[in-house]
Write a structure and sequence with these properties.
The protein is built from five helices and nine strands, in the order ααβαβββαβββββα. It is an alpha+beta fold. The protein has two domains: 39 residues, no CATH class; 189 residues, Protein Transport Mog1p, Chain A, CATH 3.40.1000. It has a nine-stranded antiparallel beta sheet. This is DUF5642 domain-containing protein. It comes from Gordonia defluvii.
Amino acid sequence: MIDVTAEVRRTVRAACITGLGLAAVLVSGACSVAGDPHDALVERSVSASAFPIEPGAAVTRVAPAQLPAIAGDISGMPVGAQIEPPGCAPQPISALATDTVVQTGFGGAGAPGAPPPAYTTVITRTTEPLGEVMAAVARCGDYRRSSASPVVVTQRLLDQVPPVRGAAVAGYTRTDASPGVTPVTTTLLLAQRGDVRVYATRRTVGDIDPTAAADPALVTLFQAVAAVGLR
């Protein structure tokens, strides 16, 4: 019996190497993914079972039209935002549907009256090393962001980040505080291999210890997105 999948992969690989006109390769951009020229990022997704959500709750894959807003929220650089000082501007996440896959779901209820935490995964392509993100976090512990309203941003590196074999890893917290509004804190775990980077994030309303280790549910989600995104 012929392994059709293997035959297709060998054909794609040959087209990538020789530059022969294989329409499917040109359309999908399959040759451009570092580490695996057969697989497009849009085909990668995290199992809903990896998300720490309530029974019966849904994990949503973000639609292409919503990617600019969601990518901006996760990176800390919303569309149209101004950063002061400018050198503290966070590294953006690509909002192209061919480059980025985002999934999100809500966890169990938090403190009484508080909304449940939002868990999000990102698989994206980037040309920037992960070390630059972390250097910016270390350099810019506090800065200001202006968009819909003025925000004071405080970010801190995590002391402990789960390892991912063959990949660079990093983690930090970012707290957004506006006058008269309860702070919102996002914990981000990141891993990168080649030009593919993954994120697992937990967004909560209220103050948290910025140096505390990531909660076990977020670590599990991080391991899941790394396994799928960096395969």
